[in-house]
Design goal:
The complex is a heterodimer.
Chain A: H1 3-12, H2 21-33, E1 38-39, E2 53-55, E3 76-78, E4 87-89, E5 93-95, H3 105-118, E6 121-123, H4 131-136, E7 139-144, H5 153-158, E8 161-165, E9 177-178, H6 185-191, E10 199-200, H7 211-224, E11 231-236, H8 240-250, E12 254-258, E13 267-268, H9 269-274, H10 279-292, E14 300-304, H11 310-319, E15 323-326, H12 328-334, E16 340-343, E17 346-349, H13 351-356, H14 381-384, H15 389-413, E18 427-429, H16 432-438
Parallel strand pairs in A: 5-15, 6-7, 7-8, 8-11, 11-12, 12-14, 14-15
Antiparallel strand pairs in A: 1-13, 2-18, 3-4, 9-10, 16-17
Helix pairs in contact in A: 3-15, 7-8, 8-10, 11-15
Chain B: E1 3-7, H1 13-23, E2 31-35, E3 52-55, E4 71-74, E5 90-93, E6 109-112, E7 125-131, E8 145-150, E9 166-169, E10 180-183, H2 187-200, E11 210-214
Parallel strand pairs in B: 1-2, 2-3, 3-4, 4-5, 5-6, 6-7, 7-8, 8-9
Antiparallel strand pairs in B: 9-11, 10-11
Classes of the chains: A alpha/beta, B alpha/beta.
C-alpha cells in the first residue's frame, strides 16, 4: 500500500459528526417508509438529571440521625387545598398513570397490589379504569384525559382522586398512539373503538380550551364528587413556570409535572427526543411558581420523568417536590428489558423474543408493538401470562421499598427526621448545566450560574 | 311532595347539586325546578337518578354534565359542554348551545332546538344528538360511536376523523373533514333518523337527510395513501 492508498483508506472510513450512523439510519428509514418512527419508552438522549446533583450529608455544621435506629417519617398528604378527603400516603413515591391498553391487565393488578401493600397510590391512564386495578388499589387516582376513553361518572365516584391530564413529559402538546396490534377486544370495548385499528388519541380536551375554561372544568369535577376528592392537574414540562401558575389559579389541589425523560407507550421519536425540558429544570420552575404565588405547601407538587432511585427521590424532595411519580422505573422493576421471564415457576429465556423484535434485552423500546417479550406492554393473552400479578406485585413492592429505604437513609444523613424536611440547602450541583437548571450552587462554591456572581 | 324548587338567586349551586346527588331519591323527589340560573355553571352535573330537572333560564358551562338516568330541560340557552360525557337520560336545550355540546357523550339523548356552536358531538362515544338548527365547524370531530341528526346546516370540516359514528344532515354542509364522506341512506338509516326525530319532537321527513360517515382511510398508517395526519 502506498501513501496515497493509505490516506484514501482512512478517509474512506471517516465518519461525519453531523451525519453519524444514527442520523443516517433515520434518513434511510424515513426514505424507505415515508413515516416517522413510533416507539415506546422515554428520551434516550443524555440530559442533566438528578445524578448531576449531590446531597450534602451532615458532618459538623449539621447533625445526622442514626441510619438504622432513629425514625424518619415518610408520611405524605396530598390534596389539602379544597378536598374534604385528601390522599394520605405512607411514602412519597407514587405510581404514574399508565393505561390498560399500553399495559396488560396483569400488570395493572400488580401495580395496585404493590401500591396498596406499601401504602401509596397508583393511577389509571388512557383507556379508563379496570376492575382489577380498582379492586387491587387502596388509593387510586383516576385520570381525566383528552381522549376520554372509558371515562364515566361511576368511575369518577369510585376514585380517590382525579387527575386532569393536560400533557405528558414524553410528548407535551401531542396526543397518544396505540397501534392496532394492541387494540384487543377488551381494549376496543373500553375505548369504544373498532378492534385492530391504529388509535390516535386527542392532544387536547374536547370540552375546554384554556385555563379559564379549566377553572370551570375543575369546579364541575368537584361538584360532581361533592368536593370530596383532590383534583390533580398534570402537565408535560415545557413552559412550566407559567403552566404551574395557571394550574394553581384554576384551582388544582395537586400539580403533577412530568419532565422530558418521562415514558410513553408509543409516540413519535421526534416528540420524545425533541419536545419538552428536563425534569430537573421543570422541577425548579414549578417550585418557583408555587413560591411566587405563596402556595408552596398549600398546593402539593408531584414530579415525574426519570425518577429511578431513592437518591433521585431524596433530591426531588429537597428541591421542593412533595412526592414523585414513577412510570418507567416501575416497568423495569416488573422485568421490562430483562432477558428472562418466569412462567409456572420456571425461568425462561426471552432472548429469542427480543431478537424477533429486532432488539435485545436492555435495549428494547418496542412497547408499541404489543409483543413485549416479558409480558408487560402487551394485550396478547399468552404473552401476558409471562408476568403474573403475584410476581409482579412482589418485584414492584421490593423496588418501591428499596427506594423508600434509600430515601430515609439519605434524609437521616442530612439530619432529617422527616423526608419532607429535606431542603435546597441540602443540595449541590456537579455540573454547570445542572447548577443553572436547578439553580443550585456548583459543588464546593457559592456560584449559581446566571443567578449569583462567581 | 314529589317536586322541589331551587332558586339559585338565593341558594348556592352546591346545595342544589348535593340535593340531587344525595337526597332527591331518598325523599322521593321526581321533579326539581331551578329558578334564576342566570348562566351559572355546572348545574345538575353528575345527576345519577331518574329525576327531571327544569332549568328556567340560561345555563352556563357543563349543564347536566356526566348525566345518568335523569332528564334535564334547559328553558333557555346552554353554555360550553352541555351534557358532556352524558351516559344515559335526556337533555333538552330549548334555546341555543355553545361549543362542544354533547362532547364525548357515551349514551342518552341530547336535543338542541336552536343552533349549536363549534365541535358539537366532538369525541362522541355513543350518545345521540339531535340539533333542530345548524351546527358549527368541526362538529363530530373524532366521533367514535353514536349518531348525530342535524336538521339545519353544518359548518366546515364536518365529521373530521370520524370512527364509527354516523351523522345525518338535512341542510347544507359547508365542507367535510378529513376521512368523512357522504354515503347513501339505507332503510335502517331512514328508520334511525325517524326514531331520533320523533324522540326529539320533530316532524321532518327522514328522506330529506343525507348520511355522513367515515371512509376509514385513516384507520391504519399508510405512507402511500398521502394521509394528512
Amino acid at each position: 500500500m502506498n501513501d496515497n492508498e493509505h490516506i484514501l483508506k482512512h478517509i474512506a472510513k471517516e465518519g461525519s459528526a453531523g451525519y453519524d450512523r444514527k442520523i443516517m439510519d433515520y434518513i434511510h428509514n424515513a426514505a424507505t417508509h415515508g413515516l416517522y418512527e413510533i416507539r415506546g419508552m422515554g428520551a434516550k438522549r443524555a440530559v442533566p438529571n438528578f445524578d448531576d446533583l449531590v446531597l450534602l450529608g451532615a458532618s459538623l455544621s449539621r447533625y445526622p440521625l442514626e441510619g438504622y435506629r432513629e425514625k424518619c417519617s415518610t408520611k405524605t398528604i396530598l390534596g389539602t387545598r379544597f378536598a374534604s378527603k385528601p390522599i394520605e400516603l405512607e411514602i412519597p413515591i407514587t405510581i404514574a398513570g399508565m393505561s390498560f391498553g399500553a399495559l396488560s391487565a396483569n400488570v395493572k393488578e400488580s401495580l395496585g397490589r404493590a401500591a396498596t401493600e406499601l401504602g401509596t397510590s397508583t393511577t389509571t391512564g388512557d383507556g379508563g379504569m379496570t376492575a382489577e386495578e380498582r379492586q387491587s388499589s387502596k388509593t387510586l387516582v383516576y385520570q381525566c384525559l383528552p381522549s376520554r376513553y372509558g371515562f364515566n361518572p361511576d368511575d369518577v365516584r369510585r376514585a380517590d382522586a382525579i387527575e386532569i391530564v393536560i400533557g405528558q413529559g414524553a410528548k407535551p402538546g401531542g396526543g397518544g398512539m396505540l397501534l392496532g396490534q394492541k387494540i384487543s377486544p377488551r381494549v376496543a370495548k373500553m375505548r369504544t373503538l373498532p378492534e385492530g385499528i391504529d388509535q390516535r388519541s386527542a392532544c387536547r380536551h374536547p370540552d375546554w380550551t384554556g385555563p379559564d375554561d379549566l377553572v370551570i372544568k375543575i369546579q364541575e369535577l368537584r361538584e360532581m364528587t361533592d368536593w370530596e376528592k383532590p383534583i390533580y392537574v398534570k402537565v408535560g414540562a415545557t413552559r412550566t413556570f407559567h403552566d404551574v401558575k395557571l394550574a394553581v389559579h384554576a384551582g388544582a389541589d395537586v400539580i403533577v409535572v412530568d419532565g422530558m425523560q418521562g415514558g410513553t407507550a408509543a409516540t413519535q421519536t421526534c416528540f420524545i427526543e425533541h419536545v419538552g425540558i428536563p425534569t430537573l429544570a421543570a422541577l425548579r420552575q414549578a417550585v418557583d411558581a408555587l413560591e411566587d404565588l405563596n402556595m408552596k405547601g398549600k398546593v402539593q407538587l408531584i414530579i415525574s420523568g426519570g425518577v429511578r432511585t431513592g437518591a433521585d427521590v431524596a433530591k426531588a424532595l429537597a428541591m421542593g417536590a412533595d412526592a414523585v411519580a414513577i412510570g418507567q422505573g416501575v416497568l423495569y422493576a416488573l422485568g421490562c428489558n430483562h432477558d428472562a421471564y418466569t412462567l409456572d415457576g420456571v425461568v425462561h429465556s426471552a432472548c429469542n423474543d427480543y431478537e424477533q423484535l429486532g432488539t435485545a434485552a436492555g435495549y428494547c423500546h418496542h412497547c408499541h408493538t404489543g409483543r413485549c417479550p416479558v409480558g408487560i406492554t402487551t394485550q396478547d393473552e399468552q404473552l401476558a401470562q409471562r408476568l403474573m400479578p403475584d410476581l409482579g406485585a412482589k418485584r414492584l413492592k421490593n423496588y418501591l421499598k428499596t427506594l423508600n429505604m434509600e430515601l430515609t437513609t439519605l434524609a437521616r444523613a442530612c439530619g432529617k427526621q422527616n423526608v419532607h424536611h429535606l431542603e435546597r440547602e441540602d443540595l449541590a450541583a456537579m455540573t454547570i448545566e445542572a447548577a443553572a437548571m436547578a439553580r443550585l450552587p456548583l459543588a464546593g462554591t457559592d456560584w449559581i450560574p446566571g443567578f449569583s456572581q462567581m | 311532595m314529589d317536586s322541589m324548587n331551587f332558586d339559585l338567586a338565593v341558594t348556592p349551586l352546591r346545595d342544589l347539586n348535593r340535593f340531587l346527588h344525595k337526597e332527591a331519591v331518598a325523599q322521593g323527589i321526581k321533579q326539581v325546578t331551578v329558578l334564576h340560573p342566570d348562566g351559572a355553571h355546572n348545574i345538575a352535573v353528575g345527576l345519577n337518578a331518574p329525576v327531571a330537572v327544569d332549568i328556567e333560564g340560561h345555563a352556563g358551562y357543563y349543564a347536566a354534565g356526566m348525566l345518568k338516568h335523569g332528564e334535564v330541560t334547559i328553558h333557555g340557552n346552554a353554555g360550553t359542554g352541555v351534557a358532556e360525557n352524558m351516559m344515559s337520560g335526556k337533555v333538552h336545550v330549548k334555546g341555543f348551545a355553545s361549543v362542544s355540546a354533547g362532547a364525548s357523550a357515551h349514551g342518552g339523548l341530547l336535543v338542541v332546538d336552536g343552533d349549536t356552536s363549534l365541535r358539537c358531538g366532538i369525541s362522541l362515544k355513543g350518545g345521540d344528538i339531535v340539533v333542530g338548527g345548524s351546527v358549527g365547524s368541526f362538529s363530530g370531530f373524532m366521533a367514535q360511536a353514536g349518531r348525530m341528526v342535524i336538521c339545519g346546516n353544518a359548518g366546515d370540516a364536518l365529521g373530521d376523523s370520524l370512527y364509527e359514528a354516523v351523522i345525518y344532515v338535512r341542510g347544507k354542509i359547508k365542507s367535510l373533514g378529513a376521512d368523512a364522506r357522504i354515503e347513501d341512506m339505507t332503510e335502517s338509516d331512514y328508520q334511525a333518523v325517524g326514531e331520533l326525530l320523533a324522540a326529539a319532537g320533530y316532524t321532518y321527513d327522514p328522506h330529506e337527510f343525507k348520511r355522513v360517515a367515515s371512509a376509514k382511510s385513516l384507520y391504519h398508517w399508510n405512507a402511500d395513501a398521502n394521509q394528512e395526519y
